[in-house]
What does this fold into?
Amino acid sequence: MQVCPNCKHMNRIGVVFCEQCGASLIGDAPLGTRTISSAELTEAREVLPATRSAEPLPADVMLRIEIPDAEPILLKHKRETIFGRRDPATGAMPDVDMTPFAGYRLGVSRRHAAIRRTENNQLELWDLGSSNGTYLNGVRLVAHRPNRLNDGDEIRLGQMVMRVRFVHTAHPTPRNADEDNTRSHT
It folds into this structure.
């Protein structure tokens, strides 16, 4: 077992980031944690929409995945989209390859997470049993369980942070989804 230097949680051997707090288990300086004051919590609530709609997604909505310091990834309609890293040994490739975004270094598993469209046309985020966890708005997900995905949600795969946006295809986007196969996924 590996003991987290940040929170003292006992982690499985080989895990790169603490399963409890997300701190690095291989670097010199673990991630810090702090308590959020009630004033900061009130301020954060004001930024988020007051209500989150459980309405089905319109047919003309695409997902736009925003990763810091990278061009957005536009995802076309699919029943399931797998996020992960390519496996050079087997040739297996996820729908969205996070390798070009330092996926290996940031703790992204080969088959890390999935976004699935439900029968009533809503989106769910699933952790696929990843080594370093999937987080939705800072909360670690339980593996193989659905979690409602909303416009503006923050997703973290290991230590890779991204934001999901719902984009109407009738509106212009910063980038054509068919320009580059490595950044646009069907």
Notes: The mean pLDDT is 78. The first strand starts at residue 2 and ends at 3.
